[in-house]
Amino acid sequence: MTLDPTGPRVVAIGGGRGLSSSLHSLRQYASEITAIVSVADDGGSTGELRKLTDVPAMGDLRKSLVALGHDDGLLAASMEYRFASGPMKDHAMGNLLITAMTEVGGDIVAVLDELGGLLHSEGRVLPATTLPVTLRGLAGGREVLGQVRVSQTSGLDGVSLVPADPPALPEAVEALTVADQVVIGPGSLYTSVLAALAVPQLLEAVLASPAQTVYVCNLRPQRGETSGYTLGDYAGALVRHGLETDCILYDSKALEPDPQVPCAVAAELARDGVTHDPKLLAAALKDLAEKR
């Protein structure tokens, strides 16, 4: 698969499996792809490595590199390999590699670019910020610290970062300046999507971008952070965090329409009702870009 030279320049924002899903879709119609990835994760292999180093969370960066990769060879497989036993049990090889290269080279952006080249990535992967950050959630006036704990919390009012104003990468801001479409989500609403946009400079760049902005709704509420969420709840969370979008794309089999969300667009996005189908999501996003 190669990018379409006549397609739009697209920036995707988020993290986790949701961002990986959207990147697989973007490869089917975009001419240029930039992934801007949340680095607030503190669980699993990523969390253990964060305790030992000063590098930002690298797990979602790894997933994005592999999703954009045009190489299904040994390196791509090794990036996703997890040790089954011993001191490195459950650590992803790609996490260790990104951490080691950053410790040696000192520049995580250069590391991601080099690995992207080795994986023949059809696009660029950038962290939302290069500073190590902690996700801070508020629920009914109660503070919750850490991505894992926030993900397990219901009734969230919002999220922010500690430190509160980490710098965005100039490369990320530039990509948003020249983008034709910005795709936000799918993925964990608070702990992936809004965690990335909690970088103030990044949110400002999205709002200032001339691009069409599309938020892709999840297919199912996530236990804890979005338990019981409706289409209106997702839209309300975006507004509370200062995010204005041109449209909210959702699967009508997964969510009920809401007249209070006039920018909502329904489309078939999943065949199994569980995961976004890359071809269906690509078709819906491409259609939105062409109708702009």
Q: Identify the CATH architecture of the domain at 9-41 and 126-291.
A: 3-Layer(aba) Sandwich
* Chain-averaged pLDDT: 90
Looking at the structure, the CATH topology of the domain at 9-41 and 126-291 is Rossmann fold
| Order of helical and strand elements | EHEHHHHHEEEHEHEHHEHEEH
The percentage of residues in β strands lies in 15-25%
In angstroms, what separates the terminal alpha carbons? Answer: 25 Å
Low-confidence stretches: none
Q: Considering DSSP H and I runs of 4 or more, what fraction of the residues is helical? A: 40-55%
Computed CA radius of gyration, to the nearest angstrom: 18 Å
Strand order in space, largest sheet? 3-2-1-7-8-9-10
Largest sheet: 7 strands, parallel
CATH class of the domain at 9-41 and 126-291: Alpha Beta
Number of strands: 10
